[in-house]
Amino acid sequence: MNATTAFSAQPAGSPLARAYTVQPPGRAQRLLQALYWPLVGLLMLAALYLVMRLYLAGQTAWGLGALTLFAAGFYIYLSKAALAWRYLFPGVAGMLIFIAFPLLYTTQIGFTNYSSAHLLSQERVRAYLLEQHDVVEERVLGYSLHAVGGGEYRLALGPREGGAPQWVSPPLALRGQTTPQALLPAGGISLGEALPLRELIRHREALQRLELRLPGESSPELASLRYLGLREFGPLRAHYEALADGGLKRLSDGQVFQPDAQSGFFSAAASGETLQPGYKVSVGWRNYARMVLDAEFRGPFLSIFSWTVIFSALTVAFATAIGMLLAVLLNWEDLRWRNTYRTLLFLPYAVPGFISILVFKGLFNQNFGEINAILDALFGVKPAWFADPLLAKTMLLIVNVWLGYPYIMILCAGLLKSIPADLYEASAIAGAGPLTNFRRITAPLIIKPLAPLLVSAFAFNFNNFVLIALLTDGRPDYLSTKIPAGQTDILVSYTYRIAFRDSGSDFGLAAAISTLIFILVAAMSLINLRLMKKGGH
Q: Around Cβ 141, how many Cβ atoms within 10 Å?
């Protein structure tokens, strides 16, 4: 009897028959099926609306990127042909948005003059300068607002000191008129009571968009009256006039300013004067060339780069030596209270790093710190830990090694458990001592699997911004440098000072240094991967 015959022989209500019978969809399932495509349509409309908003805001590149991302997402999740990509798409999209895009954007900024003085585009700077104006004080008029019925109002304008109005506006609905309104002589036009200040405040936004025209005025600039406040209308005199070639003419002296693609300013060729603010332009490799060719920048930069490498290398070396020594000592089975020692030695790693750093900042205080108090009592010296460059660097190494050795100790403790005890027994029979065991057995078997982790620790300390910022803030500073730099700065803290603090927020230069840091850290990561690959064989 085959399976089909056996199934057909079952009674209609048997469990086997119920298991193989296709059940009709339930109410909730039918509801989900009915709402599926409408919800998909709403999501598509929302995505298209967001893309359109980006495009209308002038962000064409952002809009194109969002459209590509949304299109790929809808295709992958609605098409059966891309079923396998449904599990990879979130990770790939996240990597592109949060890793690749910031990296490319930072690299792109490194090829520009982007800074606090060059934040805007050329078009926005030009528009900003054209909007600059002065009020023609001698032509300012006071005004009052009067209701004329039907939801319309008139403005009455006259001397600011008070008196009879000289001009009145036609009836206005005050709903955002954008066309100029010609004023009429006030004679013969009856006006009711002036509206109180509260009503003026209520109509303020409409009044701000209103332009009134004085009849009989030869100068268009003086004939146009604009809202100046809750009690005044008056003409505005522009500072600059737009030229057909993209330049600007200063009306006060007739000087012409043209956009300079090298400096990112509107500048006058005759006098060399520039207009603020500047705009963002591409400068090519100029930021990278400054690291090598500019002597005033190259000096502190190379010193900071060298100190960053030395700081990271010495931290890893000392932390590894101390951590490995403690792990070997704690692995000694005859040592009493091993767990107590292990717990106490692990505490620096358990306490949040920023708390330990701030505690050490107080301990190293030259006048009130406990460390100097002990040194003064024993040797009669009170070192200037924060003022002397060598002592400040020594202090950084002491604190960083204190924070880092427990990590190495834990790693070595785990690796020691993987060494066969037979090796030590054979070494004891051969008469070898503890130092020989460590040099011939322990160290060679530990260092190979530990090497990739040491490379990771080096990369971490290469970017250890928190320690520098909280303990020394990069101080003491180098003297007579073009860009402020500290002798205890590492590259990442130096980049932070350039980008956000001491040098006018030079984002372009900071982005170039950040790109260099990325290349160095990426190289260390590749070394790490190679070491891990070799360690696995």
A: 23
How many other CB atoms are found less than 10 A from the CB of residue 226?
17
Distance CA 170, CA 172 (A): 6
- Looking at the fold, whether 427 and 527 belong to one and the same domain comes out as yes
C-beta of residue 171 within 8 angstroms of C-beta of residue 181? no
Return d(Cα 82, Cα 66) in angstroms, integer. 20
| Alpha helix segments (H runs only) across 203-264 | 204-208, 220-223
The phi, psi pair for 255, rounded to 5°, reads -75, 140
Domain count across the chain: 4
Residues paired with residue 486 on neighbouring β-strands, in sequence order: 477
SS3 of residue 147 by DSSP: strand
Query: DSSP code of 195?
Result: P
**CB contact at 8 A, 468 and 449:** no
Same domain, residue pair 218 and 317: no
At residue 537, the pLDDT reads 52
Would 503 be classed as within a structural domain? yes
Please name which of 398, 452, 434 lies closest in space to residue 325, comparing C-alpha atoms. Answer: 434
**Tokens 């609905």, residue located:** 173
H or E element, residue 320:
helix 295-330
Neighbouring CB atoms inside 10 A of 406's CB total 20
Backbone angles phi, psi at 277, to 5 degrees: -85, 170
At 232 the three-state DSSP class reads strand
What pTM did the predictor assign? Answer: 0.72
pLDDT tens-place string over residues 49-85: 999 999 988 888 889 999 999 999 999 998 888 888 8
- Contact between residue 276 and residue 120 where contact means Cβ atoms under 8 Å apart: no
311 and 416, same domain (yes or no):
yes
Q: What is the percent of the chain where pLDDT is above 90? A: 45
Alpha carbon 309 to its chain's center: 25
Query: CA-CA-CA-CA torsion for 448, 453, 459, 460, nearest 10 degrees?
Result: -150
Contacts 24+ apart (CB under 8 A), 99-107: 103/518, 106/511, 106/514, 106/515, 106/518, 107/511, 107/515
341 and 318, same structural domain? yes
Distance CA 453, CA 411 (A): 9
Phi then psi for 20, rounded to 5 degrees?
-95, 5
Residues 6+ apart with CB under 8 A from 260: 266, 267, 274
- The H or E element that residue 407 is part of is helix 389-416
Rounded Cα–Cα distance for residues 43 and 50 (Å): 11
Q: Which residues form the domain of 105?
A: 26-109
CA distance 445 to 447: 6
Query: What CATH number did the domain enclosing 447 receive?
Result: 1.10.3720.10
Other Cβ atoms within 10 Å of 44 Cβ, number: 14
Say if residue 172 is in the same domain as residue 297. Answer: no
**DSSP β-ladder status, 211-213 and 224-227:** antiparallel
Taking only the tens place, the pLDDT of each residue in 481-536 is 777 889 999 999 998 888 887 656 889 988 998 898 888 888 877 877 776 666 55
328 and 364 inside one domain? yes
